[in-house]
Amino acid sequence: MSSVPYEARVNVALEAIQKDQNLSIRAAAKIYGVSDRTIRRRRDGSAARHDTVPNSRKLTQLEEEVIVQYVIELCTRSFPPRLRGVEDMANQLLRTRDASAVGKNWASNFVRRRPELRMRFSRKYDYQRAKCEDPKVISELFALVWNVKAKYGILDEDTYNFDETGFMMGIIFACMVVTTSDGRGKAKLAQPGNREWATVIQGVNAQGWAIPPFIILAAQYHLANWYTESNLPADWMITTTDNGWTTNEVGLDWIKHFDKHTASRTKGTHRLLILDGHESHHSTIFELYCKEHNIVTLCMPSHSSHYLQPLDVGCFGPMKKAYGRQIEDLMRAHITHVSKVEFLRAFREAFFTSMTEKNIQGRFMGAGLVPHDQERVLLWLCFLTRSVSMSSSSDIFQTRCTDTDSNTYPTPFDLS
């Protein structure tokens, strides 16, 4: 009998007592080799230790399983969360039942006792290592995109990319200028004095249309003349933060903005949203909203956005050049300070100049995403690697600065 597990013997003893009214607890305990106190506790409703949750556990077993599945799902989409992300998810679950938040060490302890999870350092992405690993990383990414689209039945028409880019309101981008033939040194172009920062979050669809821009200005309050004097379309969104940068809350506002303008145009059941790994782009509240609204997010590998994200492949560069030309025109009109209204007017013109159907479709094609064509990117990667090995870094830097603005890289679309 001693070879039978202890809890199994306790259960058998309880069954024997229920069947035989004359069998005492003490006698049953002696027969089955268990403690009579244990039998009494089980009879009175106390659970076995392995069936109970310690008092130190904040979450139920089901809630912990939800978090584990959440982490696993993020990892499959190249979004391994930080401990803070795991903590945020736990607190989201606790808020639904008005429970207090977890402690500062809860997330690390949780990961440590869950066999499915572990903590690892994310390594830096060295350029020499990138040259060797990029083809493998790119192939794995395209396989992931293909598998995700197949799993959820996502159509090319429901494929989106979004990213954000910053504008220093009064800065003119480098460009070719005409000077006197006897001029010495580099030509200098006077810049308006305003260096205030603004951020634009932009989404585009593979079929060639753009979601209304989401503009973040550095301010405490909205001013009426932003809307009355800038001539912005009614569906464009303006929000404010202290420094003009994005936050997790702004990220949530943007995904709601995205959903509002894409839900009615969805052809299938799910939408694919390709993005980078910025924290505000995959916060817990961001991911939960996406899950509730059938939006599947997919993260690009580090240091790859300049050839894998359509917006970086060729939309933001032309937009910033067009914006710089608008600011240059203001300067020639003797406007030496770019106000927010003037920024909005200039950005509006730059947006409509660069965000054309042909340009957006071409950039999805250049990134190999729609239509699906990883060979285009791999061919370009081999070309770039070969060019790097044949040229000095200073020559390449000079070529890039001469031919393009500082935010634009050669792309597979350019090679075609």
UniProtKB/TrEMBL annotation:
Domain HTH CENPB-type: 51-120
Domain of life: Eukaryota
GO CC annotations on file: nucleus
SUPFAM superfamilies: Homeodomain-like (SSF46689)
Keywords (A to Z) from UniProt: DNA-binding, Nucleus
GO MF: DNA binding
Classification via InterPro entries: CenT-Element_Derived, DDE_SF_endonuclease_dom, Homeodomain-like_sf, HTH_CenpB_DNA-bd_dom, HTH_Psq
Localisation: Nucleus
Keyword Methyltransferase tagged: no
Pfam families (UniProt xref): DDE_1, HTH_psq
Protein name: HTH CENPB-type domain-containing protein
Organism per entry: Fusarium oxysporum f. sp. cepae
